[in-house]
Amino acid sequence: MRLLVLSEHYLPLKGGHVVWLHEVCKRWGDVWVVTAGRKGLPPKETVDGVCIRRVRMERWAFLRPESLGLYASMLAHGLGHAARLRPSAILASRVLPEGLLGLLIGRSLGVPTVVFAHGEEITTWGKAGPRCRRKITGNLKKALMWWSYGRAARVIANSTFTAALLRARGIDDGKIEVVNPGTDPDRFRPTGRDGCLVSRLGIAGKRAILTVGRLTERKGQDMTIRALPAILSEIPNVVYLIAGTGPYEASLRRLTETLGLNGHVLFLGEIRDEMLPQVYNLADVFVMPNRRLPDSDDVEGFGIVFLEAAACRLPVVAGRTGGVPDAVLDGRTGILVDADSPAAIAEAVVRILRDAGLARAFGEAGRERVLGNMTWEHSARGVRSVIESVAAHG
Fold first, then answer.
1. Which residues fall within 8 angstroms of residue 132, CB to CB, at 6 or more apart?
2. Is residue 190 part of a domain?
3. How far is CA 363 from CA 155, 201, 249, in A?
4. Separation CA 303–CA 159 (nearest Å)
5. Which DSSP letter does residue 272 get?
């Protein structure tokens, strides 16, 4: 069975739906991916058994939408590859542009299309800026998004939250399949602290709380910083490690300085992929109080980092928003909190740091859950089951 995948972004990008997609693809067999070309990468290569074809895709400022040229290029190349391959199904990494184009290609060749749904695209698209032209473009994309979801053979939602968003907009429940992302418990596993890394960071004898993720307002690093004075009043030897980069970094650094926390907050910057498990193992608690932003409705659709932390046997404190309750089981693998309340964040962190038995129970339950049904093998099996069902019924 051949599978054609459309993904504007694909390797070597890490994180989010790209990593999920690649982990599924490399376990499939005969997979061809059409994606955007990138400087320094060959137009054709095979990675982990996946045949990747990188084509020229550009956005043009004079077009509305600017991505019209990108759409046309992916459509032309995708149609050409599909005509040669005759795939059993087309898998779109996102609803726009990939899902829309997959449907156009699939309908022209009689091939069913399956589309991933991640959550944040549903809550944020269509919320354009004040300019009229942006509003028109945003409304057009929103209309195309729901047209594509409605006509896909199946929609794979990354969480029950995302599935509920789809149902609320009238997508047939029979088309929606929930398949959670996973992680690699052989790579992310409890190893204890790396002595060299501890020495380099100067955190010997410190209790560490950790956030891994892009530095954006939605991730809630600022709320953890605001919670830190209350945490320090109870447990003075705490240090907060922030791994990642992003547009919110300058604001986070200013907040740290304003609150006089420079010695208690360490910005680790971008972490090399091979170093990430070691960084997780520095921590006593993983904290990411993700929240839903009222202006943009941006929200966490799932949160793979929570599974990575759990696989390292870390207790977790997370925001009770979006699809996170699928990733963190409240009271079993961690604590879900009001992400807009520094007091609630501090209370949860202090509770875990003070109670070694509770921390151990959360960590062990989290790793057992990952091993039981949240690995990439489980995720790939779920996606494959959906695609095989669709292909069998045409």
1. none
2. no
3. 32, 24, 29
4. 10
5. P
DSSP state of 154: E
* Structural domains of the chain, count: 2
Q: What is the CA radius of gyration of the chain?
A: 22
pTM above 0.90, yes or no: yes
Both structure tokens of 277: 């498990």
**Best CA proximity match to 315, nearest among 338, 286, 336:** 286
- Indicate whether 209 and 244 sit together in one domain: yes
Strand ranges (DSSP E) for the chain? 2-6, 30-36, 44-47, 50-55, 89-92, 113-117, 154-157, 176-178, 207-212, 238-243, 265-269, 285-288, 316-319, 334-337
Q: How deeply is 166 buried, as exposed, middle or buried, from its count of CB atoms within 10 A (0-12, 13-18, 19+)?
A: buried
Q: Is residue 294 part of a domain?
A: yes
- pLDDT, mean of residues 188-198: 97
118 lies in the same domain as 206: no
156 forms beta bridges with 116, 177
Mean pLDDT computed over 259-281: 96
- pLDDT attached to residue 109: 94
Residues 384 and 358 in one domain: no
Length of the chain, please?
394
Residue 387 has which token pair? Answer: 């695609």
- Intra-chain end-to-end CA distance of the chain, in Å: 13
Per the structure, the complete domain to which residue 20 belongs is given by 2-182+375-393
CA 351 to chain centre: 28
CA distance 379 to 179: 6
